[in-house]
Write a structure and sequence with these properties.
This protein is mainly α and about 170 residues long. The protein has helices at about 5-10, 15-50, 55-75, 85-105, 125-155, and strands spanning about 110-115, 115-120. Strand 1 and strand 2 (about 115-120) form a beta hairpin.
Length: about 170
């Protein structure tokens, strides 16, 4: 086995590229589970108090679940996740919607202060939700990175040689 075939076994970018993809996918998984936990806890609390589920929270949990399942599928050694770059970009768009929705509510939210104490009232904790907005943003950026990387690698594999144009690179 020569060194060229060893590098090709790791896909685009060699060992370094493989490790970068593993780290990115790990972060995507951990952050998706985090978002599912944050918004899922609010959905559970609402159900305990007899309130109906808010569609924005349900949407966030569904997108987080889809992201976590996608990462589990893409980590399987049989699946070449770079070929499915379009799915990464679809998840990016879904995360844009999650970030946009919760950023519009909680990014500039300032809780009321009554007698020197923060009054949050019923419902989700605004401080936790403010932090969750940043987790949504990081999720969105990670899916953009993996989608763009996959699209670039996919496009590069379809190139032809410079001089004759007959051989594939």
């Amino acid at each position: 086995m020569d060194s060229d075939s060893t590098i090709k076994d790791y896909g685009s970018g060699g060992k370094a590229g493989a490790w970068i993809r593993i780290v990115l996918r790990f972060l995507q998984f951990v952050l998706a589970i985090t978002v599912a936990g944050i918004y899922g806890a609010d959905l559970h609390a609402a159900a305990q108090h007899g309130a109906s589920a808010n569609a924005s929270w349900v949407y966030a949990v569904v997108v987080a679940g889809m992201s976590a399942i996608t990462v589990m599928v893409f980590v399987a050694p049989v699946v070449k996740s770079l070929v499915f770059w379009f799915w990464d970009l679809i998840l990016f768009v879904l995360w844009v919607a999650v970030f946009g929705r919760f950023a519009s509510i909680y990014l500039h939210y300032r809780p009321a202060v009554v007698n020197g104490k923060v009054s949050t009232g019923p419902g989700p904790n605004p401080t936790i939700m403010h932090h969750a907005v940043w987790v949504d943003l990081v999720n969105m950026l990670l899916w953009f990175i993996t989608g763009t990387w996959g699209a670039v690698v996919f496009a590069m594999r379809r190139r032809r040689t410079l001089h004759t144009g007959r051989a594939k690179v």
